[in-house]
């Protein structure tokens, strides 16, 4: 049975002629040696029981160790598959380093690289949407800003990416609710006096409903309509 490491080495050695001309045998061997150590470090990580312990080990040990290798890969401008680079993207999300994680993920999409082997999420777009939305929900619950990362990813979702309908609906709902927040961080249309803002929030929530009609935004849309009528009638 061929191991993941052996399979990766075969992929590296079987690159198309253009890539093969740019990747010397010495570089391939060097990456192969790095991958051997990388697989050993992943086994150590897998043996840890607690999630917090794994996250700390990624942040304090593994990312500092392997990030320079991933940066060297990016600087070389090649598109061959590099498990160190793709695994680090996920680890950077795990440790909350969203700036680099999102930048590298966009690069992985550009290079048409696959997500890590045995990874549950099927595409980089889904990886990014899941991680950033979870992060944004935590930020909002703690009264902290979701920018610039939320808008950076939402632009991709709104204009480029195709995601499962329910996941897209969650993003539009979150964006809509974000325009309706009161001083306590709760979506409350009755506290807003800006019709343009209310209409923008409504449009986002309608899109969320259209994407997934069980997303639970109809009541909030009705509240927005009531608030807009009240403003228009001078009942502030």
From TrEMBL:
A Pfam family: Phage_term_smal
Native species: Vibrio ostreae
Keyword terms: Endonuclease, Hydrolase, Nuclease
Domain of life of the source: Bacteria
Matches recorded under InterPro entries: Phage_P2_GpM
Molecular-function annotations in GO: DNA binding; endonuclease activity
Designated name of the protein: Terminase endonuclease subunit
């Amino acid at each position: 049975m061929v191991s993941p490491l052996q399979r990766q080495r075969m992929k590296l050695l079987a690159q198309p002629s253009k890539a093969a001309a740019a990747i010397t045998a010495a570089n391939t061997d060097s990456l192969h040696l790095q991958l051997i150590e990388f697989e050993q470090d992943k086994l150590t990580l897998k043996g840890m029981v607690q999630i917090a312990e794994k996250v700390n080990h990624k942040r304090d040990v593994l990312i500092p160790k392997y990030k320079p290798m991933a940066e060297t890969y990016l600087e070389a401008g090649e598109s061959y598959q590099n498990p160190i680079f793709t695994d680090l993207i996920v680890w950077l999300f795990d440790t909350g380093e969203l700036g680099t994680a999102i930048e590298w993920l966009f690069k992985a999409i550009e290079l048409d690289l696959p997500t890590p082997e045995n990874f549950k999420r099927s595409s980089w777009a889904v990886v990014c949407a899941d991680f950033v939305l979870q992060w944004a929900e935590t930020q909002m619950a703690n009264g902290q800003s979701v920018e610039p990362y939320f808008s950076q990813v939402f632009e991709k979702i709104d204009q480029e990416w195709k995601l499962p309908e329910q996941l897209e609906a969650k993003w539009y709902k979150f964006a809509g609710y974000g325009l309706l927040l009161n001083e306590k961080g709760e979506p409350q249309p009755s506290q807003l006096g800006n019709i343009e803002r209310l209409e923008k929030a409504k449009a986002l929530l309608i899109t969320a409903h259209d994407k997934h009609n069980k997303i639970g935004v109809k009541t909030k849309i009705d509240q927005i309509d009531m608030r807009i009528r009240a403003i228009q009638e001078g009942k502030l």
